[in-house]
Amino acid sequence: MEFLFKFINILGWGPNIFFIIVFFIFITYWLYQIFYFID
Predict the structure, then answer these.
(1) Largest interatomic CA distance in the chain
(2) pTM of the model
(3) For burial by CB atoms within 10 Å, which of 6, 8, 33, 37 has the most?
């Protein structure tokens, strides 16, 4: 979580909000694939 916070700070919060949303969607999809594979 701290890594994610630093990552967002590096990006800057304002104009890159769209990229952050896409990033979260990608992480969620990636986690879904892992749990689906395990299950």
Answers:
(1) 38
(2) 0.45
(3) 8
If one counts every other C-beta atom within 10 angstroms of the C-beta of residue 7, the result is 11
Compute CA distances 30 → 3, 9, 12, 15, 26, whole Å: 17, 22, 24, 25, 6
- Tell me which of 3 and 13 has the higher pLDDT: 3
Question: Does residue 27 sit in helix, strand or coil?
Answer: helix
Per DSSP, the three-state class of 15 is: coil
pLDDT by residue (tens digit) across 11-26? 666 556 777 788 899 9
Amino acid 33 reads Q
